[in-house]
Give the backbone structure.
Amino acid sequence: MVITGCIATIGKASSGSPCGAGGKRVAFTQESVEACAQSFVGMPLNCVYPDWYEDTDELFTDHGNVNIGYIREVHAEGENLMAEIVVWKEKYPDEAYMILNGAGSLGFSLEWYATATHEDEEIIYMDKFEGCGCAILWQNCAAFSDTFIEKLAAAKANRSDVEMTKEEKDALVKEIAASVAESMEERIKSIENTQNEIKASLEAQVSKEDIEGIQNSIEEVKKAAEQAKNDVDAIKAAAEQKDKEPEDDEEGKEPEPLKASNEEIPVPKAGQRVEGNPLIGEDDREAKLAEIKASAMNPMDKLKEITKLRMQG
């Protein structure tokens, strides 16, 4: 899967202060971009994506240690520094699924180190730099909060990447859903192997009641994973049914490319943390998060609900 989008602005100060800037905002000069922007090519794309069974509150909120792709091409378009980024959707189907469905609220945050700068009272200007990569995160979590995903593309075997049509997007959703299902099957097998290893190592050391307790706990995790797999199968079935019964008002229409939101994006604070939801209030948002986490819904549904709440921010 290929992403095209704005990863920073040129000649315009960031809306927040990135790490290492000492509380000041930063700006890339036109000359520095022309001389140094190509150093980003080949650098990794990373994100914060927690383990399946961990808390998802940090999803896409900062730079992370999960490398899910790389920057393939960089160029300037007016005051926007644009990039073409490859995402390894087969290796990271969960992340690809979330990007595909949350693209309108996602942006980027660059990683670089400066080799020459000048500054005034508020802004540090990059005169020369070396690109190290970028992270994909919620727009209001980045120092350059006006970054955005412009479009998604599907890789073609016999022609260059093109903007996806509605049919291609539906096909990509089904393909990624199948990858997620396969990933769930692998996790179930891993759980079964773990169960066998625990049983073999503890049979001679603990009581029968202890072993039964461990087995019950593992069975609960397996059931949750199997339920998530069933949810993915339902997504695939719905997509296939949609292909069979196209909506009249969608026929003959050309899909519009994804654009940056015109709504004013809240300025992130120096800690680069998620700002509260202005529509429902911080207390309500935190209460909603706690309610989702404490609910009995399966892990996939929890992830979807938390993502929806993030996209409202």
